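During the reporting period the student researcher (J.K.) took over the structure-prediction task from the postdoctoral fellow and processed the backlog of single-chain submissions. One of the processed entries is reproduced below for the supervisory committee.
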Amino acid sequence: MKTKHVVFSLLIIAGLLLAACGGGADEPTVTLSSSGAFALYPMMQRYAEEYSSEYPHVAFDITGGGAGKGISDVLAGATDFGMVSRELRTEEIELGAVGFAVARDAVFVVVNANNPYLDLILERGLTTEALNKLYVTQEFSTWGDLLGDPSITDAVNVYTRSDSAGAAEMIALFYGADAQEDLKGIGVDGDPGLLTAVLNDPLGIGYNNLGFVYDFSTGVPVAGAVVAPVDLNTNGQIEEHELLETREEAVQAILDGDYPSPPSRLLYVVTKGQPSGDTLDFLRWIYSDGQAFVAEAGYVPLSADELAGEISRLP
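J.K. obtained the following structure tokens:
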């Protein structure tokens, strides 16, 4: 009997040591992985942070890489979710991609705060026709061309995304092109890379998602960047609703429809086939408790009808 008591005591001690080393009930036992659109990356990180605090057994592995990577990874079974910042294509749906809209944002034209013609840009704005001639047909090559002033001969340094990106597709459609491949310019990888290229070039022009061009802590564009106004009604002057100096103004313009779609768009979490198990539980949480963090994270929430529609599509 004495031997049995010794063995039992040792087992208890071993169990306590395992718990002390992190083998307790709070240790994550499930890891949900996602990759893809930089536009959705900050939102997914916030979702993950809140979800894991509520459900400690679930951990997350979230990476960027662009919408194209998100789609390819999830369809290959390399991740549980793909983050996609554009509409799904027919061929992707045929391969099993199922998209669930979780928020809305937009893509904005970005220039350097030290651009020598910034006052003129803010006064006159840029037009989609001029941007088409710069990015697509390449009929325009100088800041004078863009601003309608032949005396300005400085060349525009045009930057675009080199990775497959929803932001690039949205801005291409906004400029009157058919696809990302129609955009010409210096290819830069990723949303952060494209922003950095413009920040380092006073004569540069690019485009960025809402969550990257506006500083989350201040609500204004990141230091060194300016959201260039687009003269949407082509009247040669910028009106108040076209001058988006703060994140709040940008979000309100999206909500009011003053900033068009494209380049505003829905953001999607994509699964291969219908979600189940832990992936389904996470999606259900996004559409319930998770909604509290959408506006707080700087995104545009789904409308009540959109939200109800997405919930109805869950298994």
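The committee noted the following: The chain has two domains: 28-103+265-313, 106-256.
J.K. will present the remaining backlog at the next meeting.
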